[in-house]
Specification:
By secondary structure, the protein is mainly alpha-helical. It has 14 helices and four strands. Strands 3-2-1-4 form a four-stranded mixed sheet, sandwiched between helices. The longest helix is centred in the middle third of the chain and has 42 residues.
Length: 362
């Protein structure tokens, strides 16, 4: 069985994170190229008048200042500066748009990414055997197909565009400079727009292939998943976070149980133990317990929930040390706890009778 056949498990979150740090992300160069080319076409069409005027102005300047007899180095430098200024004014909006769209499309595809590990030298890439394996891989086949597709599409669209504009191109030498530049610009714009439209299909398929290829490359064997799980189990930081989370959840459940208790036995300041008795159980159960600050919190919740609080230091200490939360009290504490519950039930009974008779507590 081949190695790829054994990799049947989906990549874990850690596997994906490590791959992202190495710069292994699903990114289509074709999609970026098409988006950049489309943006440049739109900007070029919007600034077509500026481009035409710039080109015409440059040629007029050259013709107007053409002086072969009095040609000097200063004149040569001035002409070069004018050419650079004109070219920058024409290309600046186009190049800025290309840069902005290229960065945006890459961020949309992979998100914010700073993969420093991808900058490290990898001498494995210099291995001829690895290069030969990549040469006959599915990825290389897809790249060859894309190149043939792009060459074929560009050649076909160029041929048809030139053929349709052939009558105009044949008489372009008779036109003035502005009209000639306008016709050539319109031809280039139409031809490039058709190329972008057909290349968009290729870009979409390429992006889907890149995602599929990355997912296949990151797949794991069952053994790798098992080893990673073991590694996570013995990670001290992960275990510490899990224990902390468990303690927080346990503490919250314990505090939520205090309002349901029948009585809270206190030290009165250092210990607090909440007890609850149900006929379904053979003995009362400790639903919450704490010491110092936690004991204070339990008493505070009990007061807010109108749960009776009984001071019995020996019993509070014994319950805290001998009984875990959710466990029934031991036999040797039955008598002491029964007396506390009997006292609480009697107080509650008298309170109900007084309430029924309209008498309030002093």
């Amino acid at each position: 069985m081949s190695e790829d056949a054994e990799k049947t498990e989906a990549p874990t979150a850690r596997r994906r994170s490590d791959a992202r740090k190495r710069g292994q992300v699903a990114k289509s160069v074709e999609l970026t190229s098409v988006a950049v080319l489309f943006g440049m076409i739109i900007v070029l069409n919007s600034f077509m008048h500026t481009v035409i005027e710039g080109v015409i102005g440059y040629f007029e300047h050259i013709v107007r200042h053409l002086d072969v007899v009095n040609f000097s180095q200063q004149r040569f430098q001035q002409d070069n500066l004018f050419a650079i200024t004109t070219l920058a004014r024409i290309l600046a909006p186009i190049l800025f748009t290309a840069l902005a769209i290229g960065v945006t499309i890459n961020v949309v595809q992979v998100g914010p990414l700073w993969a420093t590990e991808a900058l490290k030298p990898n001498f494995q890439k210099l291995n001829p055997l690895s290069g030969l394996k990549n040469f006959v891989s599915m990825r290389s086949f897809v790249e060859v197909f894309k190149n043939f597709y792009k060459i074929g599409i560009c050649a076909w669209i160029t041929y048809n565009s030139v053929r349709e504009s052939y009558p105009k191109l044949m008489v372009i030498w008779r036109m003035d400079l502005r009209m000639a530049v306008g016709i050539i610009g319109e031809l280039i714009y139409s031809m490039t727009l058709h190329i972008v439209g057909t290349m968009l299909v290729l870009a979409g398929l390429d992006y889907a292939f890149q995602r599929y290829s990355l997912e296949k490359q990151l797949r794991m064997t069952k053994e790798e998943v098992k080893q990673e799980s073991k590694g996570n189990e013995f990670n001290p930081q992960l275990k510490a976070r899990i224990r902390q989370k468990q303690r927080e959840m346990s503490k919250k459940r314990m505090m939520d149980s205090v309002p349901t208790a029948d009585v809270v036995v206190t030290n009165p300041t250092h210990f607090a133990v909440a007890l609850k008795y149900s006929p379904d159980n053979s003995a009362p159960i400790v639903v919450a317990k704490g010491v110092d600050l936690l004991a204070f919190k339990i008493r505070e919740i009990a007061i807010d929930a109108d749960v009776p609080i009984v001071e019995n230091p020996p019993l509070a200490r014994a319950l805290y040390r001998q009984v875990d939360i959710g466990r029934e009290i031991p036999h040797d504490l039955y008598q002491a706890v029964a007396e506390v519950l009997a006292f609480v039930y009697e107080v509650n009974r008298r309170r109900k009778e007084r309430a029924r008779m309209g008498i309030t507590w002093d």
